[in-house]
Amino acid sequence: MAEQLKANMILDKNYQIAKVDDRIYGSFIEHLGRAVYGGIYEPEHPEADEQGFRKDVIDLVKELRVPIVRYPGGNMVSAYNWEDGVGPKKERPKRLELAWRTIETNEVGTNEFAEWAKKAGADVMMAVNLGTRGIDAARNLLEYTNHPEGTYWSELRRSHGYEQPHNIKTWCLGNEMDGPWQVGHKTAYEYGRIAQETGKAMKLVDPTIELVACGSSNTGMPTFPEYEATTLDIAYDQVDYISLHQYYGNYENDPANYLAKNMDMDHFIKTVISTCDYIKAKHRSKKTINLSFDEWNVWYHSKESDKQIEPWQVAPPQLEDHYNFEDALLVGSMLITFLQHADRVKMACMAQLVNVIAPIMTENNGRSWKQTIFYPYMHASVYGRGIALKPILSSPKYDSKEFTDVPYIDSAAVYNEEKDEVTLFMVNKHLEESITVTSDVRSFEEYRLLEHTVLEHDDLKAVNTAAEQAVQPHKEGTSTLDNGILEARLPKTSWNVIRLKKA
Ligand code: AHR
Predict the structure, then answer these.
(1) What is 22-383's CATH number?
(2) How many A from CA of 445 to the centre of ligand 1?
(3) Ligand 1 atom 4: the closest Cα is on which residue?
(4) CA of 176, closest atom in ligand 1
(5) pLDDT tens digits for 95-130?
(6) Mean pLDDT within 353-357
(7) Answer CATH for 5-14+389-502 from 2.60.40.1180, 3.40.50.80, 1.10.150.240, 3.40.50.300
(8) Rounded Cα distance, 171 and 200, in Å
(9) Cα 480 to Cα 425: distance, rounded to the nearest angstrom
(10) Is 215 in the pocket of ligand 1 (CB under 6 A)?
(11) What spacing in Å lies between the alpha carbon of 74 and ligand 1's midpoint?
């Protein structure tokens, strides 16, 4: 009989990485596909509120405790006129939306989205158009959203029925400007200059805002990491964060390799940190640039079918990935990677939130439901608030097509001092075997085991649908805690959430 696989861990409350910034559990709504129309907004739906927002969707977003939502794009923002989306709805123009080649009705715009976010309990992370537009449109939008009153743009907002400013604190200076697909794509130098000047003007309008500069669209970009270096070299004093985007897919149906892809993400984060710190040193600056991983997820299931969608429709079903169980495992590992970098990754947005590569799906005029990836995202967001700890883990390892020394176990831990709770998040990537993890948690005196939640399924390709939640967590995990030693059996290919609490 094969020997039972084992891993060991020391988890000490003094091995602290940093306080987790809640904004790492952010998400993203773009005017794309059915994210807005048919997703968060559907006035004819029986669940719609007086503003046309689906209450069933808001409830699901609240379950995820999403703290911040990026808006309105994405690629879409690079040819967007924000003025089209404010004022009386019947006067708003229909436009060709160039990024996704659809018709944008502009029924939802800045004010409606700010209202929706408030209802969902989230802040807004607003992106400005640095593709077809620039400094002027950005500073006007900021004056419109944040200036209290008495000026042209603030009074225009008030005349639109929004007396109080929205006070949006986090702003993205464009989107993926390194990508040749982007309308108004820019070289690093061109982007650095417009980010610098737009940032300068925006901080003159409202010095309390924080600005995110675009980094690379993914690790495979030929200009990575030079794009980040050049941009920051130019705009270091104006910006506060640099963005990272990354999506993964299991194109080759190689689960062992697929589940290891958060190692690429880890490498991406480390490289961007080094790049930021190199420019910091070059500038002899005391300021540290942090990371905003403001697009991340699995995205590949829908790529082929999207090619069949006819252009110039209103809200076609674009990017509707139906996630399976193995996707949820990788999403769990990606969340663990963020927690391992809690000292520098201060924001992250799962892309996206509803219907478009999303944890929440809806039927037009019908049901809403949870995809497999909903669960690890919810667990991390709900229980992963506090201080990120550094578990010292020795795990058996494997090699895959692209990666060597992949630990079978991924782990992160968050200590919530106020609640006297500590939560361990762990993924077992082994395709065949359960692994028993023995953890020394003696520094958590008088703690008892609260629960061990597991997401597991025999079929890596199992999916959820509106009719059936085939993949959902249970609380029957096998763990014991005796004399400060936690012994947890992690089933093969599983996501685990183990919560300890002071007795
Ligand atoms: O999230 C989907 C798209 O992916 C976004 O619009 C873009 O920024 C990225 O390429």
Answers:
(1) 3.20.20.80
(2) 46
(3) 74
(4) 8
(5) 999 999 999 999 999 999 999 999 999 999 999 999
(6) 98
(7) 2.60.40.1180
(8) 13
(9) 16
(10) no
(11) 5
